[in-house]
Every structure is written in structure tokens, then in C-alpha cells.
Amino acid sequence: MYHRRLSLDTAPDFIVIANGEFPTLELLHKILQRAYDKGTVVCCDGAVHKILKAGFPMPHLIVGDLDSLAQEWKDMHRDILIEIKEQDTNDLSKTFRVIAERYSPDRVLLLGATGLREDHMMGNISLLPTLQTFLSGETKELITASNYGCFYVQCKDMRNTYESLPGQQISLFAMAPGVKFDTEGLHWPLNESTLEELWMGTLNRAENDTFEVTATEGNALVYIAHEVRQPK
């Protein structure tokens, strides 16, 4: 699969907003505004307060247990609320189940999944491979973006190509024990390499305008930082 660099032209028009740190990056605000104009914006529960505070309109849908919304507010906006009381899954999982049933998107941009409480952030990041399975089509793509970079799901046994800039920092994370990585186009190449701990695949960098990754024996995450650092 070929992953293009995130831009206004390449970003998905379907956006999910989680209740973490709301992005301030100008590019992400432009992408979000375009989704209001041409696509769909869905909020997880209390994330609606953050999106309104940032000056954006009401989203098309709000999903979750809605425990962070006042009853009076819920009564006023009942037509765009989906309340799911069960506590076996978090609001992000609930939201992706709903959008799979209602919209069947093949590409989704997830914002607000990181930042703020670290336990929520780690839980959200670990969920990304599962969340991508809710998307439709053979070329399903979940991009999780923040002010600092983007996570992509590297599915088991797939060879993916990622657009990059020379010097862009790249990190790889195994999401299961025993995952083996093969890469091409990174400064420190991996060849059937197993990363036993999460930190071991961090802070690599792209050498050219694309790089390739294969992960076998399990799923992985590829993180591409927005920042470009030229070697000294």
C-alpha cells in the first residue's frame, strides 16, 4: 500500500475527534474545515466541547457514553447524539463501531487521540490496529495525526511505501511479540529485525522521498514526525 504525505489534498474527508489534546497545527485545522465542507466530522463524547471552543461548528455526530455532557445540553442536541452506555469499551471504540455501521468509510483521519493523560494516550495508540479493522475496502487507511506527527497502521505481512522528506524522523513500534521488520530507505535499515522493546525502533530517519516497511508475525505502527532534521 502507498501512503501519501499528509496534506490538504491527500487527507481523508472523514474525521474522528477523540477527547485528548485538540490540535493547533494550521494544516490540521484546514483539513478539519474541509471535512465540514465536503465530508463528515464525528466527535467522541466530550471532544465536542474542544472543537466548539476552537471555533468550529457542531460536528455531524457525537458518540459515546456521554457522561461528560450535561443533560440539558444533550436534550438540546439529541438529533446528533448516539449514547452507548456499556463500559466494556472506550468512547473511541464505540465511535468506530458506529461509523462502520453508518458510513463505512475506507479512510479516516483521527485527531485528539494523543496528549493530556498518558494512560488514555497509550490506550488509544494501542487500539489503532483494531480501529483500522472497522474501516471498509481493501485500501483502508487510518491516519492518526497530532501537532507533532502521524501514526500509520502497518498491517501484518504487507509491504507499505510511505512518502517522506529526507531527514524526516521515523519510528517503528511492534504491536505484538516477535514482529520482524524489513525496511528500505531508512538511515538505519532493518533486515528481519525483531524490536524487543518499544523504544528500539524510535528516531530513525528517512533518506529519500519514500521509504518502505514490511512487518511479519504481527501488526506494527509507523510514526512519521512532521519535523525534518538534517544530519549534522
In short:
By secondary structure, the chain is of the alpha/beta class. It is built from 5 helices and 15 strands.
Can you tag this structure with a few keywords?
alpha/beta, Rossmann fold, 232 residues, single chain, five-stranded mixed β-sheet, ten-stranded mixed β-sheet
Describe the structure.
The structure is a single chain. The protein has 232 residues and is of the alpha/beta class. It folds into two domains: 2-147, Thiamin pyrophosphokinase, catalytic domain (Rossmann fold, 3-Layer(aba) Sandwich), CATH 3.40.50; 152-228, 3-Layer(aba) Sandwich (Rossmann fold), CATH 3.40.50. It is 23% helix and 31% strand. It is built from five helices and 15 strands. It has helices at residues 26-38, 47-53, 71-76, 91-102, 118-132; strands spanning 2-3, 14-17, 40-44, 61-64, 81-83, 107-111, 141-145, 149-154, 159-163, 168-174, 180-184, 193-194, 204-205, 210-216, 220-228. The protein has a ten-stranded mixed sheet with strand order 5-4-3-2-6-7-8-15-10-13. The chain has a five-stranded mixed sheet with strand order 1-9-14-11-12, with no helix packed on it. β4, α3 and β5 (81-83) form a beta-alpha-beta unit. The two termini are 32 Å apart.
